[in-house]
Amino acid sequence: MRRWRGAAPLFAVVAASSLVLTACGDDGGGEGDKGKTGGTFVEGINEPDNLTPGFTTSSYSSTVINALFDPLTELTPQGKVKMLDAQSVESTDQQNWTVKLRKGSKFSNGDPVTAESYVDAWNNAAYGPNGAAANYYFANIDGYDALNPEEGKPKEKTLSGLKVVDKQTFTVKLTGKFSDYPLTLATPFAFAPLPKEALDNPKAFKENPVGNGPFQMDGKWEHNQQIKVKKTKGYTGTRKPKVDGVTFRVYTSDDTQYNDVLGGGLDIGTVPANKVKAAKQQVGDRLQTIPAGTMDYLGFPLFEKKYQSADLRKAISMAIDREGIVKAVYDNGFKPMKSLTPPIVPGYQADACGEFCEYDPAKAKALLKKAGGFEGDLTLWFSNADPTYEKWMRIVAQNLKDNLGINAKFKKVPDSDYLTTLNEAKQNGPYRNNWVMDYPSAENYLASMWGVGNRMGWKGKTHDKFNKLIDEAKAAGTDSEREAKYNEAQQIAIDEMPMAPLWNWQNFTIASEKLGEVPIDSYAYDGNGVRIEDVTVK
Amino acid sequence: MWRYTVRRILQMIPVLIGTTFIIYAMVFALPGDPIQALAGSKPLPQSVINALHERYNLDDPLVVQYAKYMANAFQGDFGETFYGQSVTSALESRWPVTLKLALVAWVFELVAGVTLGVWAGLRRGKFTDRVILGGTTLIIAVPTFVVAYSAQLLLGVKWDIFPVAGTQEGWVSYILPGIVLGSFSLAFVARLVRTSIAENLRADYMRTARAKGLPKHRVVVRHLLRNSLIPVVTYLGVDLGSLMSGALVVEAVFNMPGIGQGIFQAVQTKQGTLVVGVTTILVLIYLFANLIVDLLYGVLDPRIRYE
C-alpha cells in the first residue's frame, strides 16, 4: 500500500508515543554508546518535488530539507518546542512575535544567516504569483491577502506583518492571536531561511540547495536516483551529526525498499503495511512503529438536505465497524480512533467521541429512527488514489446495509479530480476525508476541518460557538488552558459530527544490521521519523 | 534503396506531428486539474493555482496549448515539468537507464530465444521440444511482477547473486532486470523460431542442400536459419520499442528510474509536456525500428527489392 500519493505526497509528520519506541533509541537527543561516530548510511525516499523550502509540502522533500536546513525551532521527541536557529521567539500578546536569531549561524556557503534570510524567503514563498506549494503556511501573517488576490496581480510584494529590526532580529505580526506559533515554525520545508543566491538564481539553487543545517549537498541532485549529503563543515548548531554523510536513494516501490534493506543495499526504509507482520518475525526490533499525524474521516455533506440531522450522522458513525475494517484492510496497521485529533497532538483525549464512535448496531438503529430514517440510496465518495479506499468503503457499505438497512452505492472519482469535486461541493453523500498534519496542534485539525476559512470542511457550515472556542484557545497563554479550550471545541464538533473519525495512520520503518542507533519519533521532520543527526553506524 | 529510405524518413514527419497531437489531446482530456492534484490532499490557495495555470498555459484551449508547445519544441525547448525540471533533463537522466535495460533484455531474448527455438524446432515432437514449449508457456502465463519479485527475492535477497535493486553497480545491476524483462518476449521468440524452423525443415531447398552433401551446421545456419528468421526479425524490431515503453513493472520492482516509470508518473500527474516528450522519442524508435526491419528483409531474402 502506498503511504502517500504518488505524485506529490503531502507531508506526514510521524508521531511519537513512548510506548512504541524500541530498544534502538529511547531519546532522539541522547548520547549513544552503541555505535561510534563516522561512516555513512543510505535512507530510502521517493523522488522529492522540490528542495527549496517554501516550494514543497512533500514528505520526501521534507526528509532532505530536514537534513540541509535548521528552521527557527525544532520539536523534541516528546513534541515540545525547542529553539534551534532562533535564540528566542517571544510574544506578550500571542499576536506580535519577536524573533531573535542565534549568533554565529551561517549557511554552508559561508553567508551568515540574518533576519533578511528569513524575511526575504518568507515573502518570496507568500507571494502568490511565485506559485509556491507551501504558500498557505504564511496565510496567518498580516498582509497575506494583499499578496494573494483571488484574481489578478497582487498590489504588494512583501508581507506587511514582517519587519526586519536589525541583523539578528525581526518581528512577525499575525492576523490573529496564535499561541502555538513557535511550534509551527519548526516546519523546515516552509519556514527555513534561504541564502541570497536562492532568490537571485532559483533554478540553479533548486538543483543544488544551500542551507544552514547539519548536512550540505555532496554533489548535485541526481534526479530519480539519489541525493547525497555530507556533514557541514563548521556547523555551529545543536544538531551535530554523528555520521559523515547520508545518501537518500529514490525508490518508487515500498516493497522494493523493504527487499533492498533485507538484501543489504539500503539502511533505512519504509515497510509497506501488508509486510509488517512478516517483517516483525524476520527482523525483530529493527522494525520500528510510530503513530503518524495522518487521520482518515468519513465526511458528511452538510450542504445536502438529506444529511441535516446530527442524529443521522451519528447513527452512520456508530454503524461502522472500525476495528473490523482496520483488521481486514490494514492488517491492524492503523489504529481505530475515537477522537478528531491523533494521539501525537498535545491534549489528546482518547475517548473524546465516546459512544458515537463505538460500533453499536442497536444504538445506531435507534438513533436513525430518532432522526426520522433515511430515504433512498446513499452514495459513498472516494478517490482511486489507493485501492484500499475502495476496500474499506465496501465494508462501510456492508455495515450500513446490515445495521441500518441503508442501500449504499459508490462513486469512485479519479484522484486528480477528487479535490476539485470536494471544493465544488459535488459530493452528495458521505466521503473519504483525510488530514495530513502540518504541525502537532489541535488547531491544525479542528480549525482546518470546520473553522472559519477552513481548508477541509468543503463548503460545510461552520459553528459560531466552535469558532469562538478555537479563537480563545489560540489566545490562551498556558498549555493547560489552551488544551482545555480545544477539547471544548472538539466536543461541539463531536456533537454536531460534521465528520466521523475513523482511524490514525502508523509509520513502519526498518533499519539494516549495519546501523547502531536509529532514534525514531513522531515529531522528526524526516519522512521515516528518523533523527538522522543521531543515527550511528556500527 | 536510398530513395526508399529517404521516402520512409519523410513519411515520418506527418506521423510524428499526428501522434504528438493525439497524445497531447489525450492527456488534455484526462479529468481533473493537474495543479490541484499536485498538492496532494490539501487544496492550494487560488492565487497559487492561478499563477501555475498561467505558467503552464493551462487555461488556454487545447489547440493553442499544443501550438505553443510545438513552437517552443521547434526551438529546442521541450518545456518543463510541473516540478520545474526541464523535460530535456528529465529525459536525459531516464533514457540511458531504459536503453541499457532494453538492450540487455533484447540481447537476452535474441540469443536465448533463437537458440531455444532452433533447438526445439530441430527436435520437433521430442522431449526437448516439449520441455521448451512447456517452459515458455509458463513464462507467458505468469504475470511480470510475480516473476520480478520472485527473482528479486531469490537471486537478490536470498542467494545474493545479483544486486537487489538500483543502478549503482553499473551493467551488473541490469542483468537480472534485463533477464526478467526479456523473458516474456523470449518465450514468443522461441516459439516463433520453432514453428518457422519446423516448417522450413521440409522445404525443397533443404532437401537439395542435404543432397549436395553440405555439412549439417552449414545447412542449419546458412539455409534453414536465414530463411526462418523473417518473422522473428519483424517481432524483434517492434519489440525493442515495447521493451522500452513497457518496462514499467520491472523498472518499479528493481528501482530503475527509466522511461516506463517516467510515462506512468507523467500520465498520473497529467503532465502533457513530459508525456509528449517521452512518447515522441518512443514513436521515433518504433518508426526507425520498422524501417530497419523492412530493410533487413532485403538482406535476408534477396527476392525482396526496394525501389
Automatic annotation (TrEMBL), chain A:
SUPFAM superfamilies referenced in this protein's UniProt entry, alphabetically: Periplasmic binding protein-like II
Stretch forming the signal peptide: 1-22
GO biological process: peptide transport
UniProt xrefs under Pfam families: SBP_bac_5
Keyword annotations from UniProtKB, A to Z: Signal
Superkingdom: Bacteria
Metal-binding keyword on record: no
PROSITE patterns, per the entry: PROKAR_LIPOPROTEIN (PS51257)
Domain (Solute-binding protein family): residue spans on this chain: 86-454
Molecular function as annotated in GO: peptide transmembrane transporter activity
PANTHER family per UniProt: ABC TRANSPORTER SUBSTRATE-BINDING PROTEIN, PERIPLASMIC BINDING COMPONENT OF ABC TRANSPORTER
Record protein name field: ABC transporter substrate-binding protein
Automatic annotation (TrEMBL), chain B:
InterPro entries linked to this entry: BPD_transp_1_N, MetI-like, MetI-like_sf
Subcellular location(s) per record: Cell membrane
Recorded superkingdom: Bacteria
Transmembrane segments: 12-30, 101-119, 131-151, 171-193, 232-254, 274-300
Domain ABC transmembrane type-1: 95-297
Keyword annotations of the record: Cell membrane, Membrane, Transmembrane, Transmembrane helix, Transport
Protein's GO biological process: transmembrane transport
GO cellular component: plasma membrane
Membrane topology, record value: Multi-pass membrane protein
Annotated family: Belongs to the binding-protein-dependent transport system permease family.
Protein name: ABC transporter permease
Native source species: Streptomyces coryli
